[in-house]
Amino acid sequence: MWRPGFDYIEKQRAKLFGYRRTLCIHSHIHRGTPEKPGLVLGLDRGGSCSGVAFKVSGKKRDEVFEYLHARELVTNVYLERIGKLQLSDQSRVSAYCYVADLKHRQYAKNISVDKAVEIVSDSVGQSGHNIDYVTSTVEQLRSMNLRDHWLEDVVSKLPRKV
Known about the structure:
By secondary structure, the protein is of the alpha+beta class. It is 27% helix and 36% strand. The protein has one domain: Hypothetical upf0131 protein ytfp (Roll), CATH 3.10.490. It has a four-stranded antiparallel beta sheet. Strands 5-6 form a two-stranded antiparallel ribbon. β3 (78-87) and β4 (92-100) form a beta hairpin. The radius of gyration is 16 Å and the shape is globular. The two termini are 26 Å apart. The mean pLDDT is 94.
């Protein structure tokens, strides 16, 4: 949401049903290492998830898919799925989504707030510190007037960077 990394022609608030946003992926590259994994967000089964849908130009479709595959499927912890979204204008569309592979070794099932804080506080990967990733996500959600109480609890317990 806060760093799509590709060109888009429109973005709109959206709700995905059947999945929820949670720190359920052990990151071995972007926000951690294999020796000291971080935690990143995934779409896990159950509930719903409010966020952003990006509309991509047909001319850019293949380029965007190539970029997303390279970024998101580095260790194949996500499964590509077509999800049903309700957009802020109340229309319904199908959208390309990455959901957590519950059978993958990097899947982190039911992490507690305290365990998430412990992992996130001390993890750094190629894309930076895990704290920055989690706090930036919560800041983006707040800027959209979206609340994620579980993630907010994690952020409230993270050490402040100096």
